[in-house]
Every structure is written in C-alpha cells, then in structure tokens.
C-alpha cells in the first residue's frame, strides 16, 4: 500500500491578542533541546510560521493520531516561548512578515521583492509514495483536473490584512503570484518533466528545485508525488480527509496509466479557471467539473471525487472514513466558513484567531 505523509504550516500567534509573533527560532530551540535529532519541526519563510511534518504512514488512523500529537506538541513548545499555534492559512489580522534569516529566504526576498511579503501563508502538502519517476509523472498528468477539488475541501483563508477577501482560499491567490506556481501542462514522460524543471532553473527566475512550486510535483527529497494545493486545515480530521483522497487520487491515476487510459487534455488556461473557482467559493458555490470543465455545484463535484477514487479508497480501507469525513465537512462547512461564522458571532477578528487556536488542538 502506498504511504502518505503531510507537512502542515502553522501560524505562531500571541495567545492573548491573536497577533502573529516571530517565535519560530525560540520554538525550534526548545524542540532541538528536547530531541536533538528531531525532524518534525522546521523553520519556514517567516518567523511567524512553523512547519510540522509527519512520518509516512499506510494507515489513516495512525496518520491522524500523529497530526493531532504533533499539533499538541507544537502548541506546547509555542506556549513555552510565550505563544500559541493556529492552523490558519492566512492571518485574519494585519501583519508584516519577519523574514527568517537563511540564505535561501534572503535570496527570495531579493528576487521577488514586495511579493515575498505576501507569502506569510500556510499550506498543507501531502506526500504520496510512487514506485518511480515515470509512474510519478504519469500520476501528475492524470490528477490535474481533480486538484482544485482538494483546494476547495481545504479552503481556510477568507481574511487577509484585516479584511474579508470574498475568497474561501485567498492563500492560494497570494501563492499564485510566485512565478513557478500553479497547474502544469501534460508532461508525458519523466524525461520531459525533468527537462522542464532544468529549463526553469536555467531561467534564473527560481533558485532550486524546491522553488518549482507546481500544484503537484515530484519531490526533490523523497520518492513521492507532493500535492501542494491545500490550505492548512483548521481541523485535523480535514487534513486526514485530504491525505486519504490524495493517496486515492495517486493510486487511481497510476492504475489508469498502467491500463493505458490517457490523461485528460484540459489546457492550463482551463485548469487555472478551475483553481480560481475553488479558491473563490470553496464548497459554497460552483466548481468546474473535472470531466467537462463546466460549472457544477461544489458538493456534487466533491462527491464525484469520491466516486472517481472509490476503488482505490476501498482497497486501502479508507472508503468509510472518506465518506463520513466528507459528509461531516459538507454539513459543517470548510475552515473558511467556520471563520466567517466566528466573525458573525463575535464581531472580532482577534476572537476569530483565539478560537482557531483552540480548534487547532481539537
């Protein structure tokens, strides 16, 4: 069975005011003090962010348990440094990022200018194992039209710089400003994929393979496909749903490839429109149907993803989990909808942040 692991980027905030705090260095110092060999917690672009990575798992129960455990440990470490963690894909309050002083991040700030300041955003990346680069690229080609659905399910960023953006996932709109971000054309082979990456590096617009920010890519570190479209999810159970569906998408695409079924030939222009629909509406509007690229109610498209991956979900033992988690998400709403509801109840974006701190830990 394919393994799956996730990386979550969490926001570090003041527990009383909800304002972001540049505490990542202090948190990482404590993490290394407790466990010198730890690889769970890592620095990110800004000091107000903390990356939390799981180990690869074959079972969703084990993955979910590690996500919850890692979030609680991140909260403990942040608390010792005078802060708290919130699974927010953008900060509702006005914020100026405090750049982490690493050479790579300084290069980004110089290269991308003011656009770098807009990247204080938190995503969730799912790594799903593949047998080879050839299989991985075949998967990338066949997953393309379904990735916006994962974005819609995870949408958790309605606010930016103190304002309601009107988007369910404004993080993804900010991220789209990166020159290498977004959907990709059909590659057709691993050779063509690597040739494209080499040409991008030769352009000088990006520094290394880690800055090739495709919606889904071959990992430069692990034998995995890395799916990068999701916001960090407010609730750990939504992260598990995204991971289960990501693995099922990879397995379904690999089976289609082995059976000789071709990838859908949708243009990058249409895929960008599908990504915009997902960012704008989340699950509260229309998404573009991955088969027809025509508008269709978001809950129907979400259920179509379940149907598309049903055989793979059943074979991995995740069918019931995915059905139940999706039904609960459709009833409750995305993290974006929950945040908007908090603002309606409290009238305060600070209260939104402090409530999200509590929900991050379940």
UniProtKB/TrEMBL annotation:
Q: What class of enzyme is it?
A: ligase
Q: One MF term from GO for this chain?
A: ATP binding
What does the record give as EC number? 6.3.2.2
Which Pfam families has this protein been placed in?
Answer: GCS2
Q: Which GO terms describe its biological process?
A: modified amino acid biosynthetic process
Q: Which Gene3D superfamilies match?
A: 3.30.590.20
Per UniProt, the keywords (alphabetical) are:
ATP-binding, Ligase, Nucleotide-binding
As its record notes, the protein acts as a catalyst of:
L-cysteine + L-glutamate + ATP = gamma-L-glutamyl-L-cysteine + ADP + phosphate + H(+)
What the protein does comes down to:
ATP-dependent carboxylate-amine ligase which exhibits weak glutamate--cysteine ligase activity.
Q: Which family does it belong to?
A: Belongs to the glutamate--cysteine ligase type 2 family. YbdK subfamily.
This chain's protein is named Putative glutamate--cysteine ligase 2
């Amino acid at each position: 069975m394919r393994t799956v692991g996730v990386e979550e980027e969490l926001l570090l905030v003041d527990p009383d005011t909800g304002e972001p705090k540049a505490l990542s260095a202090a948190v990482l110092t404590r993490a290394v003090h407790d466990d010198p060999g730890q690889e769970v917690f890592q620095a990110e672009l800004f000091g107000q962010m903390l990356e939390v990575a799981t180990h690869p798992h074959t079972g969703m129960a084990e993955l979910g348990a590690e996500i919850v455990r890692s979030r609680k440990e991140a909260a403990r470490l942040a608390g010792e440094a005078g802060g708290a963690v919130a699974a927010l894909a953008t900060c509702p309050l006005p914020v100026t990022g405090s750049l982490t002083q690493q050479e790579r991040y300084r290069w980004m700030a110089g290269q991308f200018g003011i656009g770098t300041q807009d990247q204080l955003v938190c995503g969730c990346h799912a790594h799903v194992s593949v047998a080879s680069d050839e299989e991985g690229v075949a998967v990338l080609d066949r997953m393309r039209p379904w990735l916006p659905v994962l974005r819609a399910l995870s949408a958790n960023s309605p606010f930016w710089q103190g304002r309601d953006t009107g988007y369910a996932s404004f993080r993804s709109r900010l991220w789209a400003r990166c020159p290498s971000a977004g959907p990709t054309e059909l590659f057709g082979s691993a050779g063509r994929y690597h040739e494209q990456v080499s040409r991008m590096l030769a352009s000088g617009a990006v520094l290394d393979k880690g800055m090739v920010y495709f919606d889904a890519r071959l990992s430069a570190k692990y034998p995995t496909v890395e799916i990068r479209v999701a916001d960090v999810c407010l609730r750990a159970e939504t992260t598990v749903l995204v991971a289960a569906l990501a693995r099922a998408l990879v397995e379904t695409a690999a089976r289609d490839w082995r059976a000789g079924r071709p990838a859908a030939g949708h243009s990058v222009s249409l895929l960008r429109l599908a990504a915009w629909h997902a960012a704008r509406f989340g699950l509260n509007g229309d998404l573009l149907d991955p088969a027809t690229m025509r508008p269709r109610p978001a809950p129907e498209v979400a259920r179509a993803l379940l149907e598309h991956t049903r055989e793979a979900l059943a074979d991995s033992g995740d069918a019931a989990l995915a059905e139940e988690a999706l039904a609960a998400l459709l009833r409750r709403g995305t993290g974006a909808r929950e945040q908007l509801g908090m603002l309606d109840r409290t009238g305060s974006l600070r209260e939104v942040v402090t409530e999200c701190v509590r929900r991050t830990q379940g």
